[in-house]
Design a protein that fits this description.
- With 517 residues, this protein is α/β, with parallel strands linked by helices.
- 34% of the residues lie in helices and 17% in strands.
- It is built from 17 helices and 18 strands.
- The strands form three sheets. Strands 1-2-7-8-9-10-11-12 form an eight-stranded parallel β-barrel, surrounded by six helices.
- β1, α1 and β2 form a beta-alpha-beta unit.
- α1 crosses α11.
């Protein structure tokens, strides 16, 4: 088994939306020893495919159902990146870990997230109350992988309970344990229980990684002070690093220190102090084609109250990566890099990234709208993936559906009671630079011009996936794609409608085949 020395390390903590490749690489540049990716749910990785991305020089794990990149890594962080999994199943965790172990340095199991999503799914901090399951996950992975397995927990109600759990996790094969010094019901404003971490650290033979000290960490030297206070082998830094990655470096003045010198700091001086950091971050965002919303989210954390300055407000108005880069004088770099990446993708691929094909079917009866073909009512079609393998699909009517409705005139009738035109067409947000170009907006404008009732949407939820149906001018339309949220599902239905009635050409959009659940 390959080993990592978890002692005397400064580590970037796993952070949702923030812990993607650009911030991980920036943290390594500034001196982090290890970097954790954001928590990734087991089933998302199970349904992903490993792809070598020659255009970016990365290895991507791509969700087969919608083409999104679940996890992206590169050679620069090899041996340094730790994959954190959200799971409540030893079997699924092992399937994921075996799939990805050649591309990461270690696997970490999230046992500390207190968010409702994790708790309801039996993941994160829910595992703290299920020690048998938690230990089973660790033992299953540690005995079957060639890389180390760790976990990240929170302190329990008493030190004795925390210590008892940690001893069991150690015996199950955990190579190290990261401990956040707040309980499940406590938040950042509460004091971190450093003394409790220290008591556990003294009793274990494996390294303990202290976490939860961002309120106490404002410069590099504070990291060591926090480590000593916790009696830990290493420190994991979250929010302090998200706001200022220079925190990992001893030889530079942190941006946060510029703000803490005593006298009020001029806005211009603060912008000047932040500029090198943001430019370094944007370089990696452009280099590795990061989605603009993620980029914006991370820069907002760096800017803090500077978002209210004139330049900050201009930044908040930016919607695309190019627009964001323009603010820091990197627009041309972004444009030229995107062009090069696009050309490289075309050169390396004998077929387009998305298959230009629309599959139209009719549910519930005949439709007088020129629909080609159809399927028997109540049954799902079987489609082929790009690789040609058949995907067996479950009849979605056997699942209990949660229904949400929108539109001024209330609910639509049950989907099985009237014809619905289905298109196998994907809504990809990145194709729409302006909100006015979005399918829902286009369809609403069309309804007003034609003086017909405005579109009405009905959304079905199965587990954590969504699919919408729109009624427009007396006809119902839907995309066969299941989306990750209600907004995207409604956009997909609107797009299916626009393509069906000829208002939008299919060639204008990225089309592909995705599994119907």
């Amino acid at each position: 088994m390959s080993k990592i020395d978890y002692r005397n390390k400064i580590i970037l903590a796993p952070m949702v939306r923030a812990g993607t490749l650009p911030l991980r690489l920036l943290s390594l540049d500034y001196g982090a020893d290890l970097v954790y990716c954001e928590e990734l749910i087991d089933w998302k990785l199970i349904r992903s495919t490993r792809k070598v991305n020659d255009a970016l020089g990365t290895v991507d794990y791509v969700d087969r159902t919608d083409g999104t990149v679940v996890f992206r890594t590169c050679e620069r962080e090899k041996g340094k990146v730790v994959l954190q999994i959200g799971t409540c199943s030893p079997e699924r965790a092992l399937e994921v870990a075996k799939k990805i172990q050649e591309d990461v340095a270690a696997i970490d199991i999230n046992m500390g997230c207190p968010k409702e999503f994790s708790l309801k799914g039996g993941m994160g901090a829910a595992l703290l109350s299920k020690p048998d399951l938690a230990c089973s996950i660790i033992s299953t992975l540690s005995s079957n992988l060639s890389i180390p397995v760790t976990c990240k927990i929170r302190v329990l109600s008493t030190v004795e309970e925390t210590l008892a759990l940690c001893k069991r996790l150690e015996a199950s094969g955990a190579a190290a344990i990261a401990i956040h010094g707040r309980r499940i019901d406590e938040r950042p404003q509460h004091t971190n229980r450093s003394a409790e971490i220290a008591q556990v650290a003294r009793a274990l033979s494996i390294p303990v990684i202290a976490n939860g000290g961002s309120k106490e960490i404002a410069c590099h030297d504070d990291i060591e002070r926090f480590r000593v206070a916790c009696g830990a082998a290493s420190v994991m830094v979250a929010r302090a690093a998200q706001k200022d990655c220079t925190i990992f470096r001893r030889d530079v003045e942190q941006v946060s220190q510029v703000e803490r010198k005593g006298a009020p700091v001029d806005v211009g001086e603060r912008w000047k102090a932040l500029e090198p950091l943001i430019k370094d971050y944007l370089y990696y965002c452009v280099r590795y084609a990061s989605p603009a919303p993620n980029v914006k989210y991370c820069i907002q954390a760096m800017l803090k109250d500077l978002q209210e300055s004139p330049l900050g407000k201009k930044f908040l108005e930016a919607q695309t990566l190019v627009q964001i880069c323009d603010i820091w004088g990197m627009g041309e770099f972004c444009r030229s890099t995107e062009e090069q990446q696009s050309a490289q993708r075309e050169k390396n691929s004998s077929q387009p990234a998305y298959v230009p094909q629309v599959i139209r079917t009719v549910r519930g009866g005949d439709v007088d709208s020129g629909v080609d073909g159809g399927v028997e009512d109540g049954k799902d079609e079987i489609v082929e993936s790009r690789e040609g393998s058949e995907l067996s699909l479950k009849n979605n009517r056997t699942k209990k559906l949660k229904t949400m409705e929108s539109g001024e005139e209330g609910a639509l009738s049950d989907v099985s009671k009237s014809p619905v035109v289905e298109l196998h067409i994907a809504f990809l947000r990145s194709l729409y630079k302006e909100d006015r170009d979005l399918p829902k907006t286009q369809l609403l404008v069309m309804s007003r011009k034609k003086h017909v009732p405005q579109p009405k949407y009905k959304t079905e939820q199965v587990d954590k996936l969504f699919r919408s149906e729109v009624q427009f001018n007396g006809q119902k339309y839907t995309s066969t794609y299941w989306e990750k949220n209600k907004r995207a599902a409604e956009q997909g239905a609107a797009l299916a409608c626009l393509v069906s009635i000829g208002a939008v050409q299919p060639s204008d959009h990225a089309l592909t085949q995705r599994t119907r659940f």
